[in-house]
Amino acid sequence: MKNHEIDFKLYGDDMQFVEVELDPHETVVAEAGSLMMMEDSIQMETIFGDGSNNSGSGIMGKLMGAGKRLITGESLFMTTFTNSGMGKRKVYFAAPYPGKIIPMDLSQMGGKIICQKDSFLAAAKGVTVGVEFQRKLSTGFFGGEGFIMQKLEGDGMAFVHAGGTIYERRLQPGETLRIDTGCLVAMTKDVNYDIQMVSGVKTALFGGEGLFFANLSGPGTVWVQSLPFSRLASRVFAAAPVTQGGGGRGSDEGGIGGLFNLLNK
User: Which of 115, 174, 176, 235 is most buried as measured by Cβ atoms within 10 A of its Cβ?
Assistant: First the structure.
C-alpha cells in the first residue's frame, strides 16, 4: 500500500458531507475550500498539486503537478489535513452543491478512475490527481468535458462529487451505453470512450439534448449523474428576473444581481 489508509462515513442525502477518520500521522488531501470542520490536533497545510511523488521531487516536480491541475481548470493549490495527535481525529468535507458523494476504493478499480474535471473532492494522501488526455480529437472538441479529463491513480480511497442522483452501471464486454455528455461523471480505465453525433437533422437542431452523445463500451463501470451543475445553473439563471432599464430600481435590485443579494441576506 502506497496510500494512507483512511476510514470514512457519509452523512446526509441531497447535501452530503463525508467524515474522514485519521489515525496518528495519517493525511487526507482535499480541494481548497471543501473543508466543513475538523477536530483538534489536525494540522492543515496548503501545497502545490496533490502532494504525491509521481511528478518527481524538487520544485520542478511540484510545479509540474500544479500545472496539471491548472490545465484541468482546478486551483494550483490543494490542502492536506494531517493528524498530529496521539489518538484518532476526524475531519469533514462538504459537497459544493446538491448531489451525492461517491466513495471510490481505487485498489478495487484497477488503480485508476477517469472523471470529469470538477468532480474531485478529497482523497487519501498518495492518490495522484492528474490529467487524462482524450486520444480522439472528436472526443476533445465535442465531449462536453473538453479535451482533458481528470484521472485519479493509486490504491487508496478517493471521494468524487456529482449532481442529483448517481447511477452506477457495470458494462459487460461489448455492451454500449450512450450518455448525455454533461451527465458522465466517471468511468474505470477499461471503458472505451468516444463521441457520437445525434442522427437526424431535426433531432439535432430541435431535440433539446445537444448534438453529441458520449458513447461508452464495456467492459467496465460507469457513473452517471442526473443533474449536471451546468444544467442546474442554466435553469437558475433562466428563471432569474430580468432588470428593466430606466426603472426606479437600481441595477443591483433586480435580475441576477438581485438574486445574489437575496441569497446573501
Answer: 115
